[in-house]
């Protein structure tokens, strides 16, 4: 896949606070990329710089190998789906969707064809004459998507577009958006703080925190092999511990040495270790290398969330077994469940 | 936003033009109040004679006193009556509410001269002699609707359970009103009172038609005096402008000052 | 809730006596003869017929003409100003609006009076013209002077009306318009201007209707012979003593104006139902 967009060393500050600390990122054709991170990490800022609504302080933005930093938004081949949709209240659905095409002075028949086709794609056939103010949240959202896509941009920017929808609708829209992206075949750059959303929809996830990129990878990479404590903590639930990588395939924590499948670290390096709650089993106390007492067990529907206390720490375990509080138990996991990461700031 | 930097000069030019338009007449008014001669157009030198003349002019001083007195009294009455009426309206059935608000809006929607004529006819029919009381009454009549419209939105936003909570805790309806409802709508009451005061202070048309017997407020006085050139009016106007400017500055800068004091207190 | 509703009763009484009765009196006088004495009245439409005399119709049209031109001027001058202010920084906006509204607080007669010394034959403007060797222009007691006084008086209302709507405009709509390829001019014409119409309309209400009925400004700046409807009414009551005719004119004017205001309020309310879209919420 060829490279479509490149951010080179983007630095941006607002009023003395540094929001982007030197971002380097490439985005490819046909990719569904998600910028994922907590509020304030700079993901929306980066998106808006790409859209042309704000300018960076330092660095370059390349689009199709051309620097576009001085190109105003109305001349970029990028369209945006805004967080609160920004539909024009004085126009109906048709006029909203047709807006960009009319600016480009396309002829009436073409416009009608394109708008109708787009409304079909987002499941709003027949809604042409409705005033947008009378639509539900989900419908407005789809109009916003149609309005942006009908202009056949090379890239679509989506700024937390599903935030205002209820859970069920949000999950439906996630699937629909992914479907649309694959059907239309353009690059989607999606911003969200919801890690589940990112894992569901993306080809590539870019995890950001405090103005820096923490990790770039596929959803499985990010989930199974987080590169540092922040990513491990942000994505999914984890047990994060500190230990020492004695040598390849051997790690020591909680005063025991365990076999693991990671290698390539310096010998005797202090590292962070991740074990996912669903990878740990609760076993009879003789059968586990780690021993502890069950402190609590909460029924979560899909599983029980069990907290086990050992002399060293508390472990979170997800299991479908029902367990008794205050019982002494053992914890069991396989070498491939132990994931080693460099301590933050040490690479 | 990228790509939009120009037009600063045009903006400045437009704003400067408009501000000059607004303020040059006022400035010329103020400047010539200090003129040594009677002229409003040629400057003869600095003098405070017109301010002196102002304070020595009994008619003017009376008019000023009349204006202030009527403004204060009418504001007080209109505010109390309007607030109570607003509370009543907010708790009334829909039909009564709509009816009352419709009639209440007549003095606001009507051109002032029509309201004035109506009152004049009323006084004449009742054979009431026009003077101070008729003017005062008229001011209360046209101010109260504004107080109501100012207080009503606040009442609408009030939590309906609040008054009930007070009663539940043993307060009488009167106590609930005074200790709970009124404090929560105070901003509306204050802004209503301010509007009432300003409308009364500046009123001309209605006052002109309903007063008599030589009773004049500032506006009527300016009206009758402006037939000949009289810089005493300029002096009076200047004082008014200065007072209004100070008041507006204080009101608008007050939040900034208190914020600063709070910061220093930390 | 119990007793509080009865607080409205005294006010209902008050309004009946002091708002309703005066209006009824105007209607009564309009439809009768021999005013002043309440006793001797006879029903007649004569007062209204008198109004159709060409002299008085001319006054009506003149008033409308002056009011319309004033309103148009206020829009032409006021809109750009409101636009510039709404795009300024927040602090600048507060300051500018303060400066615009300050003159509104100053007594209207005083403000109009100020123009006399500027526009009169020996006045400030003419002195400046003479200084530059130009011939003095007669400005007082002309249409120009009256129009100037009107615009001066009503412009702030138009500016504030339009500004209020422009300031509340969701900036995201402008970004969206740019995003879809519209340049600033296109964005203004297709998005900003249509959405600012409610402000323009309420501005028109605040300018046109009072402008039709004003009488101080024409009197000061137009002279004794300059008659608009307001002057006519004043004239009939104070000078000529024809209370019945005066009431008829007042009634006609009241109906026209109140009717227009109710109409524009209805249009405004319908319009405001379609001027706000918030993501995810259904109003």
Defining key terms:
heterotrimer; B: 266 residues; mainly alpha; MetI-like fold; 12 helices; disordered N terminus; C: MetI-like fold
Describe the overall structure:
The complex is a heterotrimer of chains A (347), B (266) and C (283). Chain A has helices at residues 43-51, 93-103, 108-121, 137-149, 167-184, 195-201, 219-224, 229-234; strands spanning 3-14, 17-28, 32-36, 58-63, 66-67, 78-81, 155-159, 187-192, 204-209, 212-217, 239-247, 250-253, 256-259, 269-275, 281-283, 290-299, 304-309, 314-319, 328-332, 339-342. By secondary structure, chain A is α+β, with helices and mostly antiparallel strands. Chain A folds into two domains: 3-224, 3-Layer(aba) Sandwich (Rossmann fold), CATH 3.40.50; 237-342, OB fold (Dihydrolipoamide Acetyltransferase, E2P), CATH 2.40.50. Chain B is mainly α and 266 residues long. Chain B has a domain at 58-158 and 186-238: MetI-like (MetI-like fold, Orthogonal Bundle). Chain B has twelve helices and no strands. With 283 residues, chain C is an all-alpha fold. Chain C has helices at residues 8-30, 46-51, 54-86, 90-105, 108-119, 124-131, 143-167, 171-179, 184-213, 216-222, 229-240, 243-272. The two termini of chain C are 28 Å apart. The chains are: A alpha+beta (347), B mainly alpha (266), C mainly alpha (283). Chains B and C meet through helix 1, helix 3, helix 4, helix 5 and helix 6 of B and helix 1, helix 3, helix 4, helix 5 and helix 7 of C.
**For this structure, what is the CATH class of the domain at 58-158 and 186-238 in chain B?**
Mainly Alpha
| Average of pLDDT of chain B | 85
Amount of beta strand of chain B: under 5%
CATH superfamily of the largest domain in chain A: P-loop containing nucleotide triphosphate hydrolases
Based on the coordinates given, report the CATH architecture of the domain at 58-158 and 186-238 in chain B.
Orthogonal Bundle
Q: Could you estimate the helical fraction of the residues of chain A in percent?
A: 10-25%
Number of helices of chain B: 12
**Apparent shape of chain B:** globular
CATH names the topology of the domain at 58-158 and 186-238 in chain B as MetI-like fold
What is the mean predicted local confidence, pLDDT of chain A? 91
Do you know the CATH architecture of the largest domain in chain A?
A: 3-Layer(aba) Sandwich
Q: Classify the oligomer.
A: heterotrimer
Instruction: Domain count of chain A, please report it.
Output: 2
Tell me the β content of chain A: 35-45%
- Report low-confidence residues of chain B grouped into runs of 5 or more: 1-5
Q: How are the strands ordered across the major sheet of chain A?
A: 6-7-8-3-9-10
């Amino acid at each position: 896949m060829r490279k479509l967009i490149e951010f080179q060393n983007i630095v941006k500050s607002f009023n003395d606070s540094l929001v982007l600390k030197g971002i380097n990122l490439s985005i490819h054709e046909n990719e569904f990329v998600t910028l994922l991170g907590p509020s304030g990490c700079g993901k929306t800022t980066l998106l808006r710089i790409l859209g042309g609504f704000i300018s960076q302080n330092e660095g370059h933005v390349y689009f199709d190998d051309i620097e576009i930093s001085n190109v105003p938004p109305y001349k970029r081949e990028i369209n945006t789906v805004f967080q609160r949709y920004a539909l024009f209240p004085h126009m109906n659905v048709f006029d909203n969707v047709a807006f960009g095409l009319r600016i480009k002075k396309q002829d009436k028949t073409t416009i009608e064809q394109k708008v109708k086709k787009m409304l079909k794609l987002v499941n709003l056939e027949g809604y042409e004459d409705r005033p947008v103010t009378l639509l539900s949240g989900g419908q407005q959202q789809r109009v916003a998507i149609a309005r942006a896509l009908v202009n056949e941009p090379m890239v679509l920017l989506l700024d937390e577009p599903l935030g205002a929808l209820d859970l069920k609708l949000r999950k439906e829209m996630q699937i629909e958006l992914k479907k649309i992206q694959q059907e239309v075949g353009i690059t989607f750059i999606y911003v969200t703080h919801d890690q589940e959303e990112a894992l569901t929809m993306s080809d590539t996830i870019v995890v950001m925190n405090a103005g820096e990129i923490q990790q770039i990878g596929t959803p499985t990479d990010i989930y199974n092999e987080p590169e540092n404590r922040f990513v491990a903590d942000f994505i999914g639930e984890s047990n994060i511990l500190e230990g020492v990588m004695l040598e390849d395939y051997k790690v020591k924590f909680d005063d025991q040495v365990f076999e693991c499948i990671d290698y390539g670290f310096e010998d005797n390096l202090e590292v962070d270790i991740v074990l996912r709650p669903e990878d740990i089993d609760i076993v009879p106390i003789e059968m586990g290398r780690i021993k502890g007492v069950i402190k609590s067990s909460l029924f979560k529907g899909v599983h029980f969330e069990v907290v086990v206390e050992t002399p060293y720490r508390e472990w979170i375990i997800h299991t479908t077994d029902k367990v008794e509080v205050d019982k002494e138990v053992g914890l069991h996991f396989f070498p491939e469940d132990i994931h080693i990461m460099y301590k933050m700031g040490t690479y | 936003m990228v790509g939009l930097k120009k037009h600063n000069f045009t903006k400045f030019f437009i704003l400067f033009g408009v501000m000059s338009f607004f303020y040059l007449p006022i400035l010329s008014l103020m400047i010539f109040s200090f003129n040594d001669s009677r002229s409003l157009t040629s400057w003869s030198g600095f003098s405070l004679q017109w301010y002196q003349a102002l304070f020595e002019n009994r008619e003017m001083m009376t008019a000023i006193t009349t204006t202030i007195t009527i403004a204060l009294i009418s504001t007080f009455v209109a505010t109390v009556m309007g607030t109570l009426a607003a509370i009543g309206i907010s708790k009334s059935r829909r039909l009564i509410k709509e009816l009352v608000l419709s009639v209440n809006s007549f003095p606001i929607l009507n051109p002032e001269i029509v309201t004035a004529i109506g009152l004049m006819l009323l006084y004449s029919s009742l054979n009431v002699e026009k003077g101070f009381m008729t003017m005062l009454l008229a001011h209360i009549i046209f101010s109260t609707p504004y107080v109501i419209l100012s207080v009503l939105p606040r009442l609408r936003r009030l939590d309906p359970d609040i008054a009930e909570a007070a009663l539940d805790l043993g307060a009488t309806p009167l106590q609930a009103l005074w200790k709970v409802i009124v404090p929560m709508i105070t901003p509306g009451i204050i802004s209503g009172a301010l509007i009432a005061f300003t409308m009364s202070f500046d009123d001309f048309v209605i006052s002109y038609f309903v007063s008599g017997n030589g009773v004049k407020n500032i506006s009527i006085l300016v009206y009758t005096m402006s037939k000949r050139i009289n810089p005493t009016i300029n002096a009076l106007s200047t004082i008014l402008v200065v007072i209004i400017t100070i008041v507006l500055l204080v009101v608008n800068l007050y939040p900034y000052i208190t914020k600063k004091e709070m910061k220093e207190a930390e | 809730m119990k007793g509080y509703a009865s607080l409205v009763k005294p006010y209902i009484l008050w309004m009946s006596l002091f708002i309703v009765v005066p209006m009824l009196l105007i209607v009564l006088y309009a439809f009768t003869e021999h005013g002043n004495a309440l006793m001797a009245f006879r029903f007649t439409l004569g007062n209204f017929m008198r109004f159709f005399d060409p002299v008085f119709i001319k006054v009506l049209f003149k008033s409308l003409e002056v009011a319309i031109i004033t309103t148009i001027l206020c829009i032409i001058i006021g809109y750009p100003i409101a636009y510039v202010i709404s795009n300024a920084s927040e602090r600048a906006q507060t300051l500018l609006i303060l400066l615009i509204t300050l003159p509104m607080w100053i007594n209207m007669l005083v403000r109009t009076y100020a123009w006399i010394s500027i526009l009169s034959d020996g006045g400030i403007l003419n002195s400046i013209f003479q200084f530059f060797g130009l011939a003095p222009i007669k400005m007082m007691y002309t249409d120009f002077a009256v129009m100037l006084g009107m615009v001066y008086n009503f412009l702030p209302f138009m500016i504030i009306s339009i500004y209020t709507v422009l300031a509340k405009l969701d900036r995201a709509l402008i970004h969206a318009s740019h995003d879809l390829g519209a340049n600033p001019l296109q964005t203004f014409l297709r998005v900003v201007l249509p959405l600012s119409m409610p402000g323009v309309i309420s501005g028109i209400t605040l300018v046109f209707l009072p402008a039709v009925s004003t009488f101080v400004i024409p009197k000061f700046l137009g002279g004794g012979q300059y008659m608009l409807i307001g002057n006519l009414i004043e004239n009939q009551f104070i000078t000529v003593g024809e209370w019945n005719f005066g009431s008829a004119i007042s009634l006609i004017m009241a109906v026209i104006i109140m009717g227009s205001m109710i109409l524009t309020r209805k249009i405004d309310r319908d319009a405001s139902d379609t001027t706000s879209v918030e993501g995810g919420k259904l109003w």
